[in-house]
């Protein structure tokens, strides 16, 4: 992913926000804000015929050094590319890239209603850790639970 991909990446992000079950975010940030919050070496796009179909990226979970190898996953698929294996391809590549960058644990917070994301994470080896009840409000002011999933590397940090 490069900064020139941001208009389409942001559009796909907006599509995810509009579902009401993909994120607690209410608006797409500008690129500069998004850029600062995400890890440089783990940003991917899925592309076909010069069309961006989806994206994935990592963000740090903490600034504390003990969590330096732990990152949070963001994965968004454009509405016209969902259910076609794009998410699985992005996640598999993101896992490899994260390990190459020294990350030993990936985590994701997923709304219980987002069954497609839950299934995707399970397909690529994430395990369910638990539920955080009413951890945040949606853009409509509704309190939502969040399910925590984790994937621990078998080659980094062992």
Spell the H/E element sequence: HHEEEHEHEE
The low-confidence parts are none
Q: What is the number of E strands? A: 6
Strand content bin? 25-35%
Query: How does the overall form come out from the CA principal axes?
Result: globular
Average pLDDT value?
95
Q: What's the helix count?
A: 4
| Alpha-carbon distance between the two ends | 29 Å
The share of residues in helices is 25-40%
Order of adjacent strands in the largest pleated sheet = 1-2-3-4-6-5
> What Rg, in angstroms, do the CA atoms define?
15 Å
How would you portray this structure in words?
The chain has 158 residues and is of the alpha+beta class. It contains four helices and six strands, in the order ααβββαβαββ. The chain has helices at residues 6-19, 31-37, 86-100, 115-123; strands at residues 43-48, 51-60, 70-77, 105-110, 127-137, 143-152. A six-stranded mixed sheet has the order 1-2-3-4-6-5. The longest helix has 15 residues, at 86-100. The radius of gyration is 15 Å and the shape is globular. The mean pLDDT is 95.
Summary keywords:
4 helices; 158 residues; alpha+beta
Reconstruct the topology from this structure:
Layout lengths: L5 H14 L11 H7 L5 E6 L2 E10 L9 E8 L8 H15 L4 E6 L4 H9 L3 E11 L5 E10 L6
Parallel strand pairs: 3-4
Antiparallel strand pairs: 1-2, 2-3, 4-6, 5-6
A few lines on this structure:
The chain has 158 residues and is α+β, with helices and mostly antiparallel strands.
């Amino acid at each position: 992913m490069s900064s020139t991909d941001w208009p389409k990446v942001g559009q796909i992000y907006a599509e995810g926000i509009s579902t009401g079950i993909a994120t607690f975010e209410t608006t797409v940030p500008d690129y500069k804000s998004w850029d600062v919050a995400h890890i440089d070496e783990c940003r991917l796009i899925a592309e076909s015929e010069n069309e961006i179909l989806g994206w994935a990226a990592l963000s740090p979970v903490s600034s504390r050094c003990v969590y330096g190898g732990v990152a949070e996953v963001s994965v968004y698929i454009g509405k016209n590319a969902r259910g076609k294996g794009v998410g699985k391809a992005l996640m598999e590549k993101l896992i490899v890239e994260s390990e190459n960058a020294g990350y030993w644990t990936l985590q994701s917070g997923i709304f219980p209603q987002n069954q497609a994301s839950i299934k995707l994470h399970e397909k690529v080896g994430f395990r369910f850790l638990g539920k955080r009840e009413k951890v945040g409000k949606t853009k409509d002011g509704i309190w939502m639970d969040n399910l925590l999933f984790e994937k621990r590397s078998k080659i980094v940090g062992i």
